[in-house]
UniProtKB/TrEMBL annotation:
Keywords, ordered alphabetically: Kinase, Transferase
Record-listed E.C. numbers: 2.7.1.2
Name of the protein in its database record: Glucokinase
Classification via SUPFAM superfamilies: Actin-like ATPase domain
Gene3D superfamilies the UniProt entry points to: 3.30.420.40, 3.40.367.20
InterPro entries, A to Z: ATPase_NBD (IPR043129), Bacterial_glucokinase (IPR050201), Glucokinase (IPR003836)
Family listed: Belongs to the bacterial glucokinase family.
Gene Ontology molecular function, alphabetical: glucokinase activity
Length: 337
C-alpha cells in the first residue's frame, strides 16, 4: 500500500493485459493511458506449453507491439516462480518477459484485479440479488466460481481503494441444515471439503455425483454445463443447483461478515451469470442472510451478479490508466526482463 500516489508508476506503454485462469487466457491491449482497451482474444491454456508461448502467439496474430504485460494470475503472487492453482503451468515472470519481448511483467492476483474493476461498474453491468443499496466508501467483496473459487476484498483507505487478495476459496465448508446426507458422499480433495470443492465448475460436478449417490441413482451428466442446462427438467440436476446456490450463499455471507462488505458483494466468474434465476429463487439469499446474531446487518448488504464480459481485464485497465482511486504498490510485483 502506498500513500495514495497516483498510478501509473512509470509504466511503459503499450501494454498487454492478461487474465490468466486455470482454463482460459484472455488478452487485451492498451496503447496509452488515454486509449480504450482493445480486447484481443480468449484462448485455452491447455493448447499451449506455457504462458509466454500463448501470449507471443496471440500478439503475433494481431501484430500488436507491447513493452509491458500486466497479468491477473489465478493463484498466490510472489517470488520468482509461481504455479497456477488449478493448472500445472509454472510461471517465471522474467522468462515470460523474454519469450514475449517485454521490458517488464507485472503480476496481480486475478481476483484482486476483479476487485479493482468494482468502482467502475455501472448498473447495466450488474444484476442485483436482494439487499438494499450499497454504502458509499464501504468495503466491497468479489467472489466467483469458475475453474476454482476466487475471492478478494476492496477496502477504503485515506489514499484510495486497496485490493485485498487471499485464498479464501480453500477454507473448510460443511453442510447446510438439509445437506448432511449429500455431504457424506462428496469427493474429498486430500481429505478436505473446501468451498472450492463444491463452489466451482468441477465442484458442481462433484456435488451432482453426491446428490445422485445420496438418492441411490446413477449420474447421467458428465460436465457442469450439462447440469445447469438440465436443471429445469431433471430433479437431480435441480437439487444440485439448489445445494450449489445455498453453499455459495453461506460462503458469501461468511466472507461478507469478514470484510463487513456494506459496499456490496459481487458474484463473478463463469457460472454465476448463467444461473441468475436460481440465485434469485430465494435459497441463495436465505443462506446468505442466516448469520445470527448479525442477520439484520447482512440482510442489508446488496449482492450483485457481475454481467460485464471481462471484469479482470477491466480492473487491470483501470490500474494501468493511472486512476487515483487506488492505493496499491506495484514494486514487489514487477519483474524486468
Amino acid at each position: 500500500m502506498t500513500d495514495g500516489a497516483p498510478l501509473p508508476q512509470h509504466l511503459h506503454f503499450p501494454l498487454v493485459l492478461a487474465d490468466l485462469g486455470g482454463t482460459n487466457l484472455r488478452l487485451g491491449y492498451l496503447a496509452d493511458p488515454a486509449a480504450d482497451m482493445r480486447f484481443l482474444k480468449k484462448v485455452k491454456v491447455a493448447d499451449y506449453p506455457g504462458l509466454g508461448a500463448a501470449m507471443a502467439a496471440v500478439l503475433s496474430e494481431f501484430g500488436t507491439p507491447v513493452r509491458t504485460a500486466i497479468i491477473a494470475f489465478a493463484g498466490p503472487v510472489g517470488g520468482d516462480d509461481m504455479r497456477l492453482t488449478n493448472h500445472p503451468w509454472d510461471i517465471t515472470p522474467k522468462k515470460v518477459a523474454g519469450d514475449v519481448g517485454l521490458d517488464e511483467v507485472i503480476l496481480v492476483n486475478d481476483f484482486a484485479a476483479q476487485a479493482l474493476a468494482l468502482p467502475g461498474l455501472d448498473a447495466g453491468e450488474l444484476s442485483q440479488i436482494g439487499g438494499r443499496g450499497p454504502v458509499a466508501h464501504a468495503a466491497k467483496l468479489v467472489l466467483g466460481p469458475g475453474t476454482g473459487l476466487g475471492v478478494a476484498g476492496l477496502v477504503p483507505s485515506p489514499g484510495g481503494w486497496v485490493p485485498v487478495a487471499g485464498e479464501a476459496g480453500h477454507v473448510e465448508l460443511g453442510p447446510g441444515d438439509d445437506d448432511a446426507e449429500i455431504w457424506r458422499h462428496l469427493e474429498r480433495i486430500e481429505g478436505r471439503v473446501t468451498a472450492e470443492t463444491v463452489i466451482s465448475g468441477p465442484g458442481l460436478l462433484r456435488l451432482y455425483r453426491a446428490v445422485c449417490a445420496a438418492a441411490g441413482t446413477a449420474p447421467v451428466f458428465d460436465a457442469p454445463e450439462k447440469i445447469t442446462a438440465a436443471a429445469k427438467d431433471d430433479p437431480f440436476a435441480a437439487r444440485t443447483l439448489e445445494c450449489f446456490v445455498s453453499a455459495l450463499g453461506r460462503t458469501a455471507g461468511d466472507l461478507a461478515l469478514v470484510f463487513l462488505a456494506k459496499g456490496g458483494v459481487f458474484l463473478s466468474g463463469g457460472i454465476a451469470p448463467r444461473i441468475v434465476p436460481w440465485l434469485q429463487a430465494g435459497g441463495f439469499r436465505a443462506a446468505f442472510e442466516a448469520k445470527a446474531p448479525h442477520r439484520d446487518l447482512v440482510a442489508a448488504m446488496p449482492v450483485y451478479v457481475v454481467t460485464t464480459a471481462e471484469p479482470a481485464l477491466a480492473g487491470l485497465c483501470a490500474l494501468a490508466k493511472g486512476t487515483d482511486r487506488f492505493a496499491i504498490d506495484l514494486s514487489a510485483a514487477r519483474y524486468t526482463a
